[in-house]
Amino acid sequence: MRLVSLLGVLLCAHAAAQPSDDAEIASWVARLDEAPDPLHADYTPAVHALCALGLRGATAILASLDAADEMTRLRAQRVLDCAVSRHFGFVPGRGFADNPGGDARARALWHENGAYEFRADRSARLASIARWRAWLGQHASRPAPLPDTLSPSALRAGLAEVEPRMRACLPAGTNVAVSITFAKSGVVRRVRLPSAIERTTEGRCLREAARAARVRPFARPSQSVSVGVRGTGRH
Description:
Helices cover 41% and strands 11% of the residues. The protein is of the alpha+beta class. The longest helix has 18 residues, at 70-87.
């Protein structure tokens, strides 16, 4: 169970920006070499952002795999490697724990598609890029798999619309912990309130407001979160 404050202080977005359209992705590609990590020059904010997009990010950097500058090619390789790993189940901070064969499949595909190496001669690079272009053309457009669980950012987005209504149900300064269970489709399955307000006017108002929340679909059958609601008394 995850305790989430509607005040937003306990929910943290991912540090890297998440590009959502072609213009933003093109902007990241253009900045692939900007602001390299002082300790790991092959990583830049753009590398991390494009990596987070998975196969979509890999498709965007295909041309950069044949850039004239060696470091640009290396950074593009990092994006491609990361994207392929994520495609086969890699989760940052957890590895391939949920998919033991993912690492082996990612390595096999890497070699099947020419084992791209940024320092290889150009003919070898171009041959590998052609294979990756064909493979990504078949796979990158497929819908991304649903996340296993409801992320903090997805929860925050889902609660944004109902938050004012929930807070307005309670007297100003009142704090109530509300348990909300979401079905995998993203709708609210169940709302649990403290017994002290369960049958009160405030409780009925709070339950009705919470049931209107919607989140992005996820793979797990259901997920419960505990939401801290601080009243505003504006109902």
